[in-house]
Design goal:
de novo design (two linked rop proteins), about 80% helix, disordered N terminus, about 140 residues, mainly alpha, elongated, 4 helices
Length: about 140
């Protein structure tokens, strides 16, 4: 298992494992919460398209983070983490589209999901950047 947030200095492997498991749960919850939120959107053709794209991206965040943590090498971990960052960014994009097009019936939940998606994006981007530096310092 890799350090999923290499910039953090863990005192013990247990602290690292707690962080990793917590982020796995957090990214899964984000996907589930997005699915539930999409059921509350205003009903129109645009909502169906946006829902499809958002649910795909948001659930991919958790699935690919789990996969990254099972990576067999630093390079495989980095590759999967790049997908996590891309999908988290896409999730935030679709949530912003919902906000800008006034498709939400639940603006408080939309804001919470935007904040959570942005936070996950920041965490995983930092981890990706740190892993990149570690990979390129080996040469």
């Amino acid at each position: 298992m890799h350090f999923c947030l290499n910039a953090l200095k863990y005192k013990t492997m247990e602290e690292k494992n707690i962080f990793v498991e917590g982020l796995k749960k957090r990214t899964k919850k984000f996907g589930v919460d997005v699915i539930l939120f999409c059921d509350s959107l205003k009903k129109c053709r645009a909502s169906a398209v946006v829902t499809y794209q958002l649910v795909k991206a948001a659930t991919s965040v958790g699935a690919n983070y789990r996969s990254a943590c099972r990576g067999r090498s630093d390079a495989e971990f980095f590759s999967k983490l790049c997908i996590v960052v891309e999908e988290a960014d896409e999730s935030v994009f679709w949530l912003e589209v919902i906000e800008d097009s006034n498709l939400s019936n639940d603006p408080m939940e939309l804001k919470r999901l935007l904040d959570e998606g942005t936070e996950i994006l920041k965490i995983t981007t930092k981890s990706k950047d740190t892993t990149y530096k570690r990979l390129h310092s080996k040469h």
